[in-house]
Design goal:
alpha+beta; 2 helices; SH3 type barrels; elongated
Length: 128
């Protein structure tokens, strides 16, 4: 009779252990999904976006290199970009060394504001 008691107790422990393992597996799957959504997916989107910008890189674009050098693109070749960092200084970089593209052939916002102010001043002068 005591054998039946131990056998029933062993069966109950095995079922509890199986339930515990199943809970752990569900937790592990949820953690992997969260990791993918918050870390892997955004990074791959950024990488694709940068690759797109690098393929569309053209003369006049403002960029920042991985070393922190800000410059304006002077010429673009297949794998090489020449940046003007000063009035007289030009540096050649590999395209992979560009970390961000700040403005693609657009006029800088400060310059645009200055144009608008100049136009307003001209209008005021014409009215007088």
């Amino acid at each position: 009779m005591s054998n039946w008691f131990f056998l029933a107790q062993a069966t109950g422990n095995a079922q509890a252990a199986a339930g515990s393992q199943m809970g752990f597996m569900v937790f592990l799957v949820i953690m992997l999904v969260v990791y993918w959504v918050f870390l892997i997916r955004p990074q791959s989107k950024k990488r694709k976006e940068l690759a797109q910008k690098l393929s569309n890189l053209k003369k006049g674009d403002r960029v920042v290199t991985i070393g922190g050098i800000h410059g304006k693109v002077v010429s673009v070749k297949e794998k090489v970009v020449v940046l003007r960092i000063d009035d007289r200084a030009e540096i050649t970089f590999d395209k992979n060394a560009i970390s961000t593209v700040e403005a693609q052939g657009k006029e800088e916002p400060a310059a645009a504001d200055n144009k608008e102010k100049e136009e307003e001043v001209e209008k005021n002068n014409e009215e007088k």
